[in-house]
């Protein structure tokens, strides 16, 4: 972002000089500089478009309350089928995963930007320290910069995987003492008004793909072939259709399951 500011300043200065000294040697040199800086400026805008979007939000919604929820999701896929699990708080089928948690140092940072606990989800032993907060729009760039640094917050998808699948007895702990996964992508939704939250809202979701060992894959295949009350394996088409199946059957597939695709 800092480099983009420098390029932009040079571009504007060169443009002004080229206009003021049009036809002179200085003006011609400035015109050349303008042309040479077009690509770096455009490249910088593209590379920093998310930061620029948040900067715009911080101006437009400076004094508005904004709810931010930052989570991670597991893509667990066998033979073209995606594993979804029953939600613990909402009656829906959703990806394994959950909201990131802040460490004590992260909570200290959140205090410096006057972040407030989110009231949409009741605060209890399970939701304590969750990265569901409400901040003023002016603080959005600071929050995202901190979140993106990975400092002071959970930085592994293991906890929810263990709680939802291993700890719950769905997968055997002796075969899943650890997981190995690839980082796939990060979705940062554009700001919108949420009827549920009754406020502006930004949702952040990191997606990881499970890379099972041979033993772990065998366990998952067995799970795929054995009906279980708490999980379901669905196709990409079922996720896109939000659970609407041929014949009128409907599964309560959560909207955010589409982030797996």
Short description:
With 261 residues, the chain is an alpha+beta fold. 38% of the residues lie in helices and 23% in strands.
Summarize the structure in words.
- The chain is of the alpha+beta class and 261 residues long.
- The chain has 2 domains: 46 residues; 197 residues, Alpha-Beta Complex (Nucleoside Triphosphate Pyrophosphohydrolase).
- Helices cover 38% and strands 23% of the residues.
- It contains 8 helices and 11 strands.
- Strands 1, 5, 6, 7, 8, 9 and 10 form a 7-stranded mixed beta sheet that branches.
- Strand 3 and strand 4 form a beta hairpin.
- The longest helix has 23 residues.
- The protein starts with a helix and ends in a 21-residue tail after the last helix.
- The mean pLDDT is 85.
Q: What is the CATH-assigned architecture of the largest domain?
A: Alpha-Beta Complex
Number of domains: 2
Structural class designation:
alpha+beta
- Give the helix proportion (percent range): 25-40%
Q: Could you say which overall geometry the principal axes of the C-alpha atoms support? A: globular
> At the third CATH level, what is the topology name of the largest domain?
Nucleoside Triphosphate Pyrophosphohydrolase
Number of helices: 8
Mean pLDDT: 85
Summarize the biggest pleated sheet.
7 strands, mixed
User: Which regions contain 5 or more consecutive residues with pLDDT less than 50?
Assistant: none
Strand content: 15-25%
What is the name of the CATH class of the largest domain?
Answer: Alpha Beta
How many individual β-strands?
11
User: What is the H/E string?
Assistant: HHHEEEEEHEEHHEEEHEH
Distance between the termini: 30 Å
The gyration radius over C-alpha positions equals 24 Å
